[in-house]
Design goal:
This protein is an alpha+beta fold and 374 residues long. Helix content is 26%, strand content 21%. The protein binds flavin mononucleotide. Flavin mononucleotide binds next to α8.
């Protein structure tokens, strides 16, 4: 269960404090120009230690491609990419060896497998999402090369602080190349990856939680542009279902919304329905995009709009009650080690990656992209 996708298949491997993490991507068509740099630039966005809002673990996360590329292009064979772990401090975790952290996966992994690499959360660590981002970088390259598809993620909420920027408040930003580039610059230059004007208020909110040895969650929005009409299936394997599955496969994601999402439940039909019209060239257009680019499980040509709810980081310094599986006592723990006080900004490239992998897989299966060679 470490492989995602049917035809564009991403297998992720490795543990937080093992030798290495990475991914094998099988099913990427031949003749896609691809370099380590394409993957590295996405990994740099996920890398820890870039702001006070991320774990201080210092990792370069330098990627090496071991196979699948010849003369700068994919060959249609498995692309194996590896990132060696460098900055491990397994000692930090000796205290949680027998005392599972509330909110983490320590207990379930241990009960299910009975041999759990607890160091840094092992396989349940956020570090494993390096594999997701490697797969996503290759999928993004494939989607932009074939259909100029762009996938942009950003923070819209931290804890209870709602931002003033989101797709529905600013749809015009996504309509032109220049404003889109500017948006991406703003997102990447900001420690919370939040393009809202009240972003400083969000920073204060996180800093306050950090002072109390606590953590916070938030909401990330992801928009996919230029997805052609017809991607997805009408009954099972709907585009919305597949995207939700991909996004819910990311650690710490607790909910997915498509389009206006849960707000749809409060709207009248006359407010929710996206009215259609023909433009001058008789292309089908929509007055609004409340459906988030998907009708009946199939893409309708408007931007695909998704949102994920990200929970607060489970590892916190605050005293918590748990159990000791060795002594069978009820105990208290104060978690040490290096942790993200908020996962939200680092999950942005991971969420974009799962959207890209899902689209690449569906577009190969649906005949939009040739499965063997470009
Ligand atoms: C990018 C990323 C970074 C994460 N960093 C941490 C962390 O520093 N400390 C921690 O306790 N959990 C962290 N997590 C969350 C845990 O991996 C996750 O909560 C845990 O495996 C339990 O899974 P669940 O929350 O999906 O139930 C991170 C997750 C992601 C995606």
């Amino acid at each position: 269960m470490n492989t995602y996708g049917d035809m564009f298949r991403v297998t992720v491997f490795g543990e937080s404090h093992g030798k290495a993490v990475g991914a094998v991507v099988d099913g990427c068509p031949a003749n896609l120009p691809l370099s380590e740099e394409d993957i590295q630039k996405e990994l740099n966005r996920r890398r820890p230690g870039q702001s006070i809002f991320s774990t201080p673990r210092k990792e370069e996360d330098k990627v090496e491609i071991l196979s699948g590329i010849f003369e700068g292009k994919t060959t249609g064979t498995p692309i194996c990419s590896i990132v060696y772990n460098k900055n491990m401090r397994p000692k930090d975790y000796s205290k949680i060896k027998d005392t599972p952290r509330p909110g983490h996966a320590d207990l379930t992994y241990r009960l299910k497998y009975k041999n759990y690499d607890y160091r840094g959360g092992g396989r349940a660590s956020g570090r494993v999402t390096i594999g997701h981002v490697i797969g996503g970088a290759i999928a993004k390259k494939l989607l932009s090369y074939t259909y100029n598809i762009k996938i942009i993620g950003y923070t819209i909420k931290i804890g209870k602080i709602e931002g003033d920027f989101n797709y529905y408040k600013n749809p015009e930003v996504f309509e032109n190349e220049k404003s889109l580039e500017r948006l991406m610059e703003i997102i990447e230059s900001n420690p919370l990856r939040c393009p809202s004007m009240n972003e400083k208020e969000m920073e204060e909110y996180v800093l306050n939680a950090m002072k109390n040895k606590d953590s916070v969650g938030g909401v990330v929005e992801i928009v996919a542009l230029n997805v052609p009409v017809g991607v997805g299936n009408p009954i099972f394997n709907k585009l919305n279902g597949e995207l939700a599955r991909g996004l819910m496969s990311i650690n710490a994601v607790k909910g997915v919304e498509i389009g206006v999402g849960f707000k749809a439940a409060e709207m009248y039909g006359s407010e929710m329905n996206d009215e259609m019209y023909f433009d001058e060239d008789k292309n089908v257009r929509f007055k609004t995009n409340n459906c988030g680019g998907i009708l009946g499980g199939i893409s309708c040509g408007t931007p695909i709009v998704l949102r994920i709810a990200v929970k607060p980081t489970p590892s916190i310094g605050k005293k918590q009650r748990t159990i000791n599986l060795k002594t069978l006592e009820n105990v208290e723990i104060e978690i040490e080690g290096r942790h993200d006080p908020v996962i939200v900004p680092r999950i942005v490239p991971v969420a974009e990656s799962m959207v890209a992998i899902t689209l690449a897989d569906l577009m190969i299966k649906g005949g939009f992209i040739h499965p063997c060679s470009l």
